[in-house]
Every structure is written in C-alpha cells, then in structure tokens.
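Q: How would the structure tokens look for this protein?
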Amino acid sequence: MVEGFGELGGELGHKFPRVFRLAEHPDAKVHSLGEWENNVWCWKLRWRRRFFVWEETLLRELMETIDAAQISLEADA
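A: Here is the predicted structure in token form.
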C-alpha cells in the first residue's frame, strides 16, 4: 500500500509546480486522492479551477507519471 508519494511527491512538485499549485490538496496522501474500483486504482484529483488549454499538457504529463506508479491493496512490509 502506498501512503504518500514520499520523495516522488517532492519530485513531482518540482517537475509540475504549476499543477501542484492548482491542486485543492497538494499535500494529501495517496489514499485520499482516489479509490479502488473493481481492484483498479482510480485517481479522483480535485482542482481549484479549470485548466487553461496550455496547462492541459502539464496535467496529462503528471497523470502519465502517476498512473505508472505501483499501487496495490496489500500492506507494505
């Protein structure tokens, strides 16, 4: 189970500062940013406003990065 992004979260904040500034809860733990649906993790990110067209590329890149993260239902050892 992933509780937070840890170092990755810091890296993401530096790589996508604009997107993080738009997040409603930029310091939230992973478990509060989505939910399991049919054993598949689904992100439920919330934003303070709609993205400008030029920001959508940044959001897409962030989503591609976090979608690649290994999140499981099993507890960490």
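Residues 6-67 form one domain.

The CA atoms of residues 24 and 77 lie 31 Å apart.

Upvote if useful.
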